[in-house]
Design goal:
Blueprint: H1 8-14, H2 19-22, H3 25-39, E1 44-47, H4 48-51, E2 53-55, E3 71-75, E4 89-92, E5 109-112, E6 121-123, E7 132-133, E8 137-141, H5 145-156, H6 158-166, H7 178-182, E9 185-188, H8 191-225, H9 257-268, E10 272-273, H10 274-277, E11 278-281, E12 290-291, E13 297-300, E14 314-316, E15 334-337, E16 349-351, E17 360-361, E18 365-370, H11 376-384, H12 386-395, H13 406-410, E19 413-414, H14 419-450
Parallel strand pairs: 3-7, 13-17
Antiparallel strand pairs: 1-9, 2-8, 3-4, 5-6, 5-8, 10-19, 11-18, 12-14, 13-14, 15-16, 15-18
Helix pairs in contact: 3-6, 5-8, 8-14, 9-12, 11-14
Length: 451
Amino acid sequence: MITSTVRSGSVLTFDRLDANFYTSAGVAAYERLAVVEASGDIASVACIGDFATVWDPPRFARAYASPAEIGKPYLRPYDVFDYLPMESDRLSVLRNEDVDGLVPRVGTLLQTCSGRNLGPVTIADADIAEFALSHDMIRIDAPNEEDQLYLLIFLKSRTGQALLRRNMSGSVIDHITTRDVAGLPVPLVADDLRAEIVKCAGAAVAASAAARTRLRLTVLEQERRLPTPRRDPAHRQGWTLSSRLVDDRLDAAFYDPLIRASVEQVRDSGGVRCRDLAQAFLPLRYKRFYVQPGHGRRILSGRQILQADPVNLRHVSDRSFRVPALYELHPGMTVFGAVGRSEGRQGTPALVTDDRAGWLASNDVMRLTPRPGVNPAALWLAIAAGQTRLQINALSFGSVVDHMNPQDVESLILPPVDDDLAAATEQAWGDFATANSILNATVERLESALN
């Protein structure tokens, strides 16, 4: 039985008597804030709308740009949480009104407000400010940087997340509005603690922004030094293939001339087989026993491995696995989704950093463990190269969902990576790990103060 103690004043405030409402995490957080405020342990409580502007762009029918049309790169709500956001499409500048109005300014808080992604929040840096975002991301603009950073930490805390979900509505898809966010109570802690929280948050945001910029520049430099071949002639014109080149597959995509050109280019530049640099591994399927935080270990999906702040992170009991150690992630591994759409994020790699040591990943995640003497950052950059992505996508098989196996992955021909690019890549991923550690510690610092 779930029980909860509620103040009589709260019953009058909410004008409700249903027990389900009062036993929710959001109401419990509200009650806790009221008690802490009355005890004098925090300076005061204010609503977000009292000192910040909460808004979202008007709804619009997305008109996507054709290949030859002027467009603005577009991110879906959960794309902004990626280590390195990649455009999911391009919005037509001519056929959408005020596309520039969809681009967040640097420093704006971006709050997810709908569906399974409801809850996570991030802050726009110079990289994210190059993309258009839809009305499904609520914008929060505070008058100064200190308020903005404090709000970021509070909204990431368990108390903030519970309060966000308190007023969810919708018969099918959960949703919150700008009014819900503006009315959210924010506890303003003592000045010395608040200054400490703001300072740490600023350091984490700066480290993350620098890491993202450095990583994107490194990938672009790798592409500049070894440009991915372009398709010529057009794909729709088809191609011919000698029967002696047909191996054990009959799907046309596997024999795309663009892939052959990429492989030949990489070989000519000194590329080597993936198996010479790393060992590929994909664990078996398992029966999932999901549990509450504190009763199991964090487990990442093929999509979540790409996110600096995993959306809808789950925890799983060790009893789900015969050998739990086979599903553990270790620093230095390059991982990518082996199951999913080949035209989507399948094959997009991430580097496992120290802050995720011991986390688990599902059986849909391919693991590449560098061999002795191989730089993990260089391996990641070789997998992220355009030529490798083309090869990975060609490996996919399956009638409904695209899959691949470790043996095929080890047969990839990887391009060489210069030492300077490997060093820059290593620094970027290290900065991401530092930023995540500082941010998580700061959130816990505030959460403990609120409890």
